[in-house]
Design goal:
There is one protein chain. The chain is an alpha+beta fold. The protein has a domain of 48 residues. Helix content is 22%, strand content 11%. The chain has one helix and two strands. It has a two-stranded antiparallel sheet. Strand 1 and strand 2 form a beta hairpin. It is extended and about 55 Å long. The structure holds flavin-adenine dinucleotide. The site of flavin-adenine dinucleotide has 9 residues, from helix 1.
Amino acid sequence: MNAFITLADGGLAVDTQLRVTTADGEAIPGLWAAGSTGQGGLQLLNHGLHIGWAMVFGRLAGRHVAQSQNRLDLSPTEHVTVS
Ligand SMILES: Cc1cc2nc3c(=O)[nH]c(=O)nc-3n(C[C@H](O)[C@H](O)[C@H](O)COP(=O)(O)OP(=O)(O)OC[C@H]3O[C@@H](n4cnc5c(N)ncnc54)[C@H](O)[C@@H]3O)c2cc1C
């Protein structure tokens, strides 16, 4: 009998500014990803790499978001109350 480790790893495709990209490589306006969600397809197969990635690229993504232009084409969504 063999033991196996199975996992899903990789996250969404992102560019160098952590913007989520389409299958064609185009950045989707206003959408960034960090941590395991924004891993850009990388398989991180060693101890601590995931947490390291999440902290470092979360900070970088936050900086890019903070430095981005305001989106004037977006409007706030209405609050929905779930009972
Ligand atoms: C059992 C296990 C062991 C691991 N061991 C290691 C290890 O030894 N070393 C290593 O480097 N990596 C390890 N990892 C992987 C590592 O923990 C993750 O890759 C890393 O924590 C991902 O960070 P993250 O910030 O992307 O996501 P998370 O740490 O999952 O953080 C996401 C946060 O968002 C919150 N959230 C979700 N939805 C919402 C919402 N709608 N509104 C508000 N908040 C929300 C969640 O509650 C959570 O706090 C391990 C993972 C697991 C499951």
